[in-house]
Write a structure and sequence with these properties.
- The two termini are 18 Å apart.
- The chain has a seven-stranded antiparallel β-sheet with strand order 2-3-4-5-1-6-7.
- The protein is globular and about 40 Å long.
- The mean pLDDT is 94.
- With 106 residues, the chain is an alpha+beta fold.
Length: 106
């Protein structure tokens, strides 16, 4: 069973200005696995077994990023998700919330 979260920037206008370039920033993360189109990034632990599940899909929407976690998250993916949140928020910051709108952290 997967879990969904939203990364919500405090300054949505700033996020919107940077939305198209943010996915490119994540290509340098150790857990970057692949991009699908301009607004979708997948992260996976590089130590996962061959053929193992990718861990997190990030979809960059108009006002924030939807994360779908496919499996339990490894320490390396959790670390990179903290970097992702800082990048999404920019100078204004951002927060993760679960599908009930409750605060979440990685």
């Amino acid at each position: 069973m997967g879990y969904e979260y939203d990364a919500i920037p405090n300054d949505v206008d700033d996020y919107r200005r940077r939305r198209d370039t943010l996915p490119l920033e994540f290509e340098s993360l150790p857990t970057f696995n692949r991009s699908v189109g301009a607004h979708e990034v997948w992260l996976s632990d590089p130590q996962r077994p061959e053929g193992g599940w990718e861990e997190v899909q990030l979809v960059f929407g108009q006002d924030g990023v939807r994360l779908t976690c496919m499996t339990a998250l490894s320490a390396s993916v959790r670390q990179d998700l903290r970097v992702v949140l800082a990048s999404i928020g920019g100078a204004g910051g951002a927060r993760y919330v679960d599908d009930d709108g409750e605060p979440a952290a990685f």
